[in-house]
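Consider this pair:
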Amino acid sequence: MTKVIIEIIAFLVSTSGWVLMSATLPADYWKVSSNDASIGAVITTASFWRNLWKVCLIDSTGVTNCRDFPSLLELDGYIQVCRALMIAAVCLGFFAIACALVGMKCTKIGGNDQVKARIVCASGIQYFICGICSLTAFSLYANRTMNDFFDPMFMDIKYEIGSALFIGWAGAIMCILGGIVFSLSLFDIFSKRSTP
């Protein structure tokens, strides 16, 4: 395979990963209640779900009621950290896409081959960091959810991992893999320097 085809595949993989990872930021089901819950003295079949921004209740009639988290300072620390990591990942991924488009061999902008290789390498590092940030956020959120679920002293509603985390993990891994492939262009810079 030529370098152009490898770069295009890496771009498609990492950008698809960024899209998947970004789509989970506003997604609903980061964690879902594990069983029916009783609300007050009245027993109702209900399902709760949460994400980074709100908590929602779906009752037995299918009506959904959501409540945004009221204050940033009242949030648990892990949610604040996950929000920050996800926003950083989305921003880094956006800049990585721009750098990759400029630096790939199949585009006509960006300068000579050495300059383009440096730009693609920078894009690969950005994709890699983007993937690490989002992977850390998803793993931290899942870890906290699982700790609460298996803690016998935890008396609140117990939640299970939602579908958004699985989609996010897949997107983060795709970003990391694409970033590694893009970063391999750094070896092209050194090999061209070492040849007389």
